[in-house]
């Protein structure tokens, strides 16, 4: 592909002169013969300026259409805004790039014909890759968000859960806690077109919590409770935790909605936070800073995950071959709900 330097060598002038001529710089003092010679050589070498390449690229992107496939129901999205924020990031980035979103599907009602007519697919949440392939066989045009299958043939974007759990437990260890509980939701792998549509699979926060606590020699299985990803389940799980003869001095809730339900249960039992029990959430949703006490939590970036998914898909559609896996870092936000035992 010809460059400005190639044109300058043939024309016998500097690269700066070629650049200014091709950009119609009116302040440049150069003879008409030189100007004409530069344009003739550029045409002969089939030179394409960057702005023309960008225009062509933008035009091609404007013809692209993708589809979204979500594992969760509208009710799940209302109860936990995490997936809504991912979708918002996708929509923002698609609008910036001029890429159209053909349709958003839930796992229960994918339209095979519509899916196969789009240029790419972004899957949000845990859907079995075999089912995805059956609906949309082009692996190179699929990006998985918030789920990494064991065989990494797809592009994916996920949270750095290991960093998050290390930060959570390190914070509690530094405060002096050794007896720590865990309340969280179960991870459900959705199957499409299968009689038993949901399969319970290991969830990263739960798995890492147990592993890190066992490494410290302080894991107590009676302090672990699993349920759903909402406030009602958090309330129930904390009540179950408090029904034990002993209770931990701190508890990690695997989402902010779960933490809010847990906080309500603690208040009803007259247990002061953080004096009697420290509590940490996960998400840093908008309300987390305004509950009483303000919630210590792990900040995640779901909107950035959505934007990153679009960028990965665009790279695939424009020729990248090797699958890419992006891990988005987290940040521990320390507020009022954690303190010394």
UniProtKB/TrEMBL annotation:
Residues 2-57 form the HTH lacI-type domain. SMART domains: HTH_LACI. Gene3D superfamilies: 3.40.50.2300, lambda repressor-like DNA-binding domains. One of its GO terms (molecular function) is transcription cis-regulatory region binding. Keywords: DNA-binding, Transcription, Transcription regulation. PANTHER family: HTH-TYPE TRANSCRIPTIONAL REGULATOR EBGR, LACI-RELATED TRANSCRIPTIONAL REPRESSOR. This is Transcriptional regulator.
